[in-house]
Amino acid sequence: MNRVTVIGSINLDTTLRVPHMPKPGETIHAKEHFTAGGGKGANQAVAAKRSDADTYFIGAVGNDAAGEMMIDLLSQEEINVNAVARLDRKSTGQAFITVDDEGENIITIFAGANMDITPKHVGDYKEIIKKSDFVIAQFESAIKSTIEAFKIAKAAGVRTILNPAPALKDVPEELLEVTDMIAPNETETEILTGIKVTDEASLIEAAEYFHNIGIEAVLITLGSKGAFYHVNGQTGIVPAFRVKAVDTTAAGDTFIGALSSVLKTDFSNLEDAIRYGNRASSLTVQRFGAQPSIPFKQELI
Ligand code: ATP
Ligand code: RIB
C-alpha cells in the first residue's frame, strides 16, 4: 500500500447545473443546486484513499462551518487530517461551479485559508512527508509552502508529483528543481512550455522541455483522449475509456490520486498506473460533483 501525502487546497464546492452557460449580462434558471466537498488537493487525497492509499493531508481551512464540514468529510474517508490547520479570521476556500448540459464547466475559486498554509506549518509536519512514498501538490494553495514540502520530500528521497493546476505562468524554478513528476493537462502544458500539444511529436517536445529542467517523469492528461507519458526512455499514449461525460469536475484530480495509489516509486509501472487512473476518472466524469463522483477501488478492479 502506498503512503501518499497531499499538500494543497480544500474547498466547499457550490455547483449549479444549467441548460447552457449564461453569456455576460444574461440571467438564467439553474436546474439543480448542490454543495459538496472539493478543492484539487482534497479531491486528490480522496481519490488516493478510495483506492486504498494510506493518505495524509497538509492544508488549512477557516475556523468556520464550512471548514468544520470539510474536515469532517475528510475524516470520514479516514484521511489523516492532523496537519490541517483551522485558522481564525480566515474563510475556508470555496469554489463556485457551473456545469452545462454538455458537461462543460466554469469554475471560480476563492482560495481563502488555502493561501495561508505557511512553510513553518509544513515543517511542523515534516515527519509525515518523510515517511511518504509520494507527496502531491497543485496550485490552489500557498506556493512557498509547497516548495518547503517538496524540499523536505526530496531531501528524504520521497517522490514528488506536481499537478500544475490551475495554470500558472511563472512557476518558481525552485519548485521545478524538486519535482520528480509533472502532471499538467494540455492547456497547462502550453502555458508552462510555450508548446501547443497537438500530436505525439509536440507532446514529446513538451516532455523534453520538462526533462531539460530536471524533471524525471512527464505525464500529460489529454481529457477524453487519455494521457501521454514520457519517462526513462519509455513513452506512449494510454487511451481514455469511451464514456458519456456529464460533469468533468475532478477528472484530473481523480486521475492523479488514483494513479498515486498504485504507482511504483521508480515509475516503472507508469503505463499500468495510467490505465488505472483513466479507469477511475472515466467513472468520475459520468457523475456529478467533485468528491461525490470519485470511485472506490472495488469499482475499479
Ligand atoms: P478537470 O480540470 O476537468 O478535473 P483536467 O483538465 O485536469 O480535468 P483532463 O485531461 O481533462 O484533466 O482529464 C484527466 C483524465 O480524466 C484524462 O486523462 C482521462 O483519463 C479522464 N477523462 C477526462 N475527460 C474524459 C472523458 N470525456 N471521457 C473519458 N475520460 C475522461
Ligand atoms: O479540480 C476540481 C476542483 O477545482 C473543484 O473541486 C473545485 O474546488 C476547484 O478547486
From TrEMBL:
Instruction: Name the Gene Ontology molecular function terms of this record.
Output: ATP binding; metal ion binding; ribokinase activity
Q: Where does K(+) bind?
A: D247, T249, T284, R287, G289, S293
Pathway assigned to this chain's UniProt record? Carbohydrate metabolism; D-ribose degradation; D-ribose 5-phosphate from beta-D-ribopyranose: step 2/2
List the protein's name: Ribokinase
Task: Report the catalytic activity.
Answer: D-ribose + ATP = D-ribose 5-phosphate + ADP + H(+)
Q: Subunit info?
A: Homodimer.
The protein's required cofactors: Mg(2+)
According to its UniProt entry, one GO biological process term is: D-ribose catabolic process
Carbohydrate kinase PfkB domain sequence ranges: 1-295
The gene for this chain is rbsK
Gene Ontology terms, cellular component aspect? cytosol
Q: Which domain of life is it from?
A: Bacteria
Task: Say which family it is in.
Answer: Belongs to the carbohydrate kinase pfkB family.
